Structure prediction request, 452 residues.
Amino acid sequence: MTAKPEIIDVRVSADEMRVVPIVWLGEGDRHIKARVLMNAPGGSAKVLCLFLAKQGTLKLETEVIHDAPNTFSRTLVKGVLDGNAVANYEGLVTIRKGSKNADADLNEHAILLSPNARAGAIPRLEVLENEVKAGHGATVGKVGENELFYLATRGLPRAEAKRLIVRGFLSAFVSEFPKEEAEKINAALERI
Amino acid sequence: MSTLTIKNLHVTLESPGTTALRAGYGAGKPILNGINLTLPKGKTHVIMGPNGSGKSTLGNTILRHPNCKIVKGTIAFGKNKLSSMKTDEIARAGVLLALQHPQAVSGVSVTNLLTIAVRKFSEKPKNFKMAHFRNDIKDTAKALHMPDEFLSRSLNDGFSGGEKKKMEILQLSLLPAKCVIIDEIDSGLDIDALKLVAKQITKLRARGVSIIIITHYNRILRWIKADRVHILHKGKIIESGTEALAKDIEKNGYSEYIDA
Prediction:
């Protein structure tokens, strides 16, 4: 693991909409720390992280801070791990006092394709204001035998069925990314 | 000529918990205890039986579900020895299964799945063209009174019981099937939907496809002609006959056969 984390630091202005895209395609070990501060009213931020890897380790930390009224954030982390790839995620959303009508959501969903792949998720919410909406969730699952059997009964070999499930799992999410990142991800999806 | 031949088939269920295989059975429990069945090309056989008699396990075993372990016996379709083939190879040999509880596949539409699947089959329909195939998907959906949106939504995701069953028949109608096993397609269907589904099955029959219909009820036989009816009980076929047998069961139940 590289010692020095990559830092992404974003400040969202009043009524601004920001997308913070993070992509890891197993190109090497990475440690990424993203911090998004919303201290002006009406700001909105989407922190999108997608990982798709066969090897290597990702350590990802995201922190979204609501420090103004009517701020909106979505943190969505979605990934597929094969081989011996590892992804550890810590996500934090803080809603500070005075951030009335803040709306925050934090989610991680990962699929493991091999018994040696691992995904960890620690989502945290710290809410210090009452009039807010906030939610979080995390799931880590395997591609199920029943799903693979179903697709096999339509003539799809196992590898092909897995590929279809992975693409299905990620495709809608990819379209939320800016063009440059989406192209990279789609190229990687072609290779699996 | 491809005949489906099942000889002295003994099957145990290895890991329970999946609804399609009737949760509640212990691991390694014997479910099928010596099934013999010959389904000649183009014939329609019906398998009836009380709950837990092994009907779904038989269908799942023909397609080699990983939980169904063949302990003894063989399954063959023409020259293909299904009992030593993988599920996807069996499907591509033209033996297809409509599942009792079809799986939801998130992010994958039926159009998506069918256009990928059909390329895998070596024997395609005559003059196969993908553009025509896409039209066929739409036409078949229309024949089943399914709105177009079902063709682009995630397959079976949030579908009602009836919609799932229609989706199964749609897929079986479009892939190059030679022999289909249809597992409880009639449960969860209202009478109008059942008629539409039966119409598709009749079309398959007219194409010379061999058909096994697994069911609890006689009612689907109002619209489909069966060549033979078998009663399965405790993993064995205990009685075989004509459609009259199915009518008799509807009237008198299984007890007469089971107690015998």
